[in-house]
């Protein structure tokens, strides 16, 4: 996958870099990103849309993995950017990302976040609720602006990996409900508001999706609504954003579709519905996060303690865990791993990979086949590019790992490792508790 291979020393190599050397040079835990694979996936989205033959926009969903270097890469690959907070917006803007290619999401954007977006002149806002619609319109008018907006609609389709569920009334915090008429009221209110320019609709049906049916059903429902807004209420819509959710392979059993298959199905459905309902084919926007960042990321750890409970289980502990990858403990997410310095050796044992944090549930992988790992070995866990660094914490006061991009035998640090002093840089001891200085 990507530039991953076993080199002639029997070590795992990524981007032409020996991962054992990377671990030595930069320490562990270490997030390693295969830059070539990141770029290839961005290009797959472009290629898929060009093949589908319609106007499109691909916005990388920064929530999956957002750093300044990642924003640079995303811009270089001609993608737009979806941000969900002032923090992500700030990261992008300070990296020189063009504001007009950014849109801001979120179900409870603060006044400050809206103002930041307006001042920066971002490309648009995905408006989630009536409160935000009114607030944004008011703030924009005051600044003499009229930003483009999409309305986030919940179409009553929820997709999870293999199956999707259709729900009549959507019970979710996100977006304007379609079935109850909320979405219609939102369109009408947005049309009247002088401070915003309604240009399209948005929906997002879930994440880590392995089939196209959920997307197609969402498109059908959204296009029915879109056509009503255009034909009956005179809204000048031109964009349908179908969100993200394109799945990736974490473990052998996972069967994600090629990017092209998702996009072709979405494009066909949009074209068909537009024709059927007598509206011009809208621009189709997508917001992939996981699919771009996930497969390109590998986390390197150093193996420490081994614990064997005869007849029960073998544990090997690594120097990271739930602080750098909370996905197993939060979502029971599964991963695959190899012993990076024995990548050429046969798999010898089943081991459970334990983290080092003070919780029984801090397990990275349960019972995975591995070469026999001993203390000092380097363990590489695959598919950790999305929702790991971006969800990392300092639990147990663990410094957050460094992030490196590798390519053509070069490794560049894009986020430096936190130091112990970084951990206390925001701490303050009230005067009355200070120890007297001698
Ligand atoms: N657009 C919207 C409006 C979203 O809410 C999301 C993800 C995306 C795009 C990107 O979805 P993706 O292509 O990455 O599936 N922390 C969870 C995933 C949360 C996804 C939240 N929304 C995890 O680690 O699995």
From TrEMBL:
It catalyses: meso-2,6-diaminopimelate + H(+) = L-lysine + CO2. Its EC number is 4.1.1.20. Its cofactor is pyridoxal 5'-phosphate. One of its GO terms (molecular function) is diaminopimelate decarboxylase activity. Pfam families: Orn_Arg_deC_N (PF02784). SUPFAM superfamilies: Alanine racemase C-terminal domain-like, PLP-binding barrel. Pathway: Amino-acid biosynthesis; L-lysine biosynthesis via DAP pathway; L-lysine from DL-2,6-diaminopimelate: step 1/1. Keywords: Amino-acid biosynthesis, Decarboxylase, Lyase, Lysine biosynthesis, Pyridoxal phosphate. The active site is at 358 (proton donor). InterPro entries: Ala_racemase/Decarboxylase_C (IPR009006), DAP_deCOOHase_LysA (IPR002986), De-COase2_CS (IPR022657), De-COase2_N (IPR022644), Orn/DAP/Arg_de-COase (IPR000183), PLP-binding_barrel (IPR029066). It comes from the Bacteria. This is Diaminopimelate decarboxylase. It comes from Kyrpidia tusciae (strain DSM 2912 / NBRC 15312 / T2) (Bacillus tusciae). Substrate binds at residues 290, 327, 331, 359, 387. NCBIfam families: lysA.
